[in-house]
Amino acid sequence: MRPLRIAVRKFDPFEAAIRRQFDDFARTVGGAPQLEIEALELNELHARLLAQPSLRDGSIDLAFLCTDWLAEAHAAGAIENLRPYQMRAPISDFPHAWSPSLVTLQDFAGGFWGMPYHDGPQCLIYRKDLLEAADLEVPRTWEQFHTVARALHDPARGLSGTVLALFPDGHNGFYDFCIQVWSRGGEPFGPGARPQLCSAPAEAALEFMRHLAGDSAAIVPGARALDSVKSGLLFCAGRVALMANWFGFAALAQRWEGSAVRDRVAIAPLPQGLGGRSVSLNVFWVIALAAGSTQKSLAWAFLRHLATAPMDKLTTLEGAIGVRRSTWADAQVNQMIPFYHQLEGLHGHARELPLHPRLAEASHVIDELLARALDTEESSRSLLNETQRRLEEILQ
Fold first, then answer.
1. Do the domains 122-281+358-395 and 4-119+284-351 match in fold?
2. CATH number, span 4-119+284-351
3. Are strands 62-66 and 4-9 parallel, antiparallel or unpaired?
4. Is 189 in a helix, a strand, or coil?
5. CA dist., res. 55 & res. 182, Å (int)
6. What does the DSSP 8-state code read for residue 67?
7. Torsion angle in degrees (nearest 10) through CA of 101, 62, 313, 342
């Protein structure tokens, strides 16, 4: 029997958790199966899985997929519908042991296209010790967020007020822009994924990001080179006072032995914009079964094992974010990470991006919009009008 092959997003907690979970799985089945892990950065992973025939030619059995990529993978015939497998060898407490928000995005076109593995909606992550020492309240609006960032910015101490992850990988810059639009009462995409960027909320969102990114008295230098992981690690290193980022980085800052801010971390809902409300984003990682896998039964057996409560808790203990409600409420987990139980509430106001096979391509157009907004004096309205036209061509 050849090894089971899995492609994962390059992130130490993912790799460590999958390795330990497979070792536990191997002890429960005969034949001593082996596992090969291929760990890739975000854009490399997308290219490996969807620009190449890796999911169809048998070279990969299982793969980490961002939910943004599911429609693209489905349209390419690259992933298996898991519903028949669930009917033949069911996960006993599925789907009730998961929040509905984690089992609906991958449920479309008559199939179920991936098991949730790693979660953690965006939230406000902040240093509670710094806010308390400065007698500052947790910001509830984006304007207050910017004000607090400026108040806490202290380069002499190696401390920046906040950070943006503007590396053009079709990830955080795109997501942050959508959140900014939603939180101002707008909709970046309408029915059928039709772009809706020629609006006052979209213009206000771009203006805010433009102003914040250019404020050297509030933001960490070099944000254009930072992705979500690097920006999260800066917070863990004690170099950022507050940020809008994934819940997982708050957990990492509290749990990681190398964190400089343990026991000084807190979270809150994201701020709201004028005329809007607090909105989070529901994007998560699933593990999908490759359509071309020659070991589908073994792969499904491993997926079922990963879905158990002990294995989901292990995902968290290794530094990623488990997806079962049992993990979110677990006493040991909440003793280590006191705000872990707040995940349920964050999901209560999380929005989702539209399913579209070319959404990843569209995300890079938003990256280009942000880059031009920072590099030129062109008006935000003009930039948005041009981006609207480009997105219509891609998403029509």
1. yes
2. 3.40.190.10
3. parallel
4. strand
5. 34
6. G
7. -30
E strand intervals along 247-376:
265-268, 280-281, 285-289, 350-351
120: alpha, beta or left? (left if phi > 0; alpha if psi -120 to 50) = left
Q: Which helix (H) or strand (E) holds 122?
A: strand 122-127
Quick one: CATH architecture of 122-281+358-395?
3-Layer(aba) Sandwich (3.40)
**What DSSP character marks residue 184?**
T
* Strand, helix or coil for residue 4: strand
Helix (H, G, I), strand (E, B) or coil at 281: strand
Which of 65, 84, 90, 87 minimizes the C-alpha distance to 76? 65
Q: Provide the pairing of β-strand 115-118 with 111-112.
A: unpaired
Query: Could you check whether the bond before residue 95 is cis, i.e. omega within 30 degrees of 0?
Result: yes
User: Which tens digit of pLDDT belongs to each residue from 265-289?
Assistant: 999 999 999 889 999 998 999 999 9
For residue range 51-103, what is the model confidence (pLDDT) as tens digits?
999 999 999 999 999 999 999 999 999 999 999 999 999 998 999 999 999 99
Q: Output DSSP code: residue 48.
A: I
**DSSP codes joined into one string, 68-106:** GGHHHHHHTT-B--SHHHHHHS--TTTTTTB-GGGSSTT
**pLDDT more than 90, % of the chain:** 90
pTM of the model: 0.91
Domain boundaries, the chain: 4-119+284-351, 122-281+358-395
- Alpha carbons 275 and 317: distance in angstroms, whole number: 40
Number of H helices, E strands in the chain: 17, 12
Q: Give the largest CA-CA distance in the chain.
A: 65
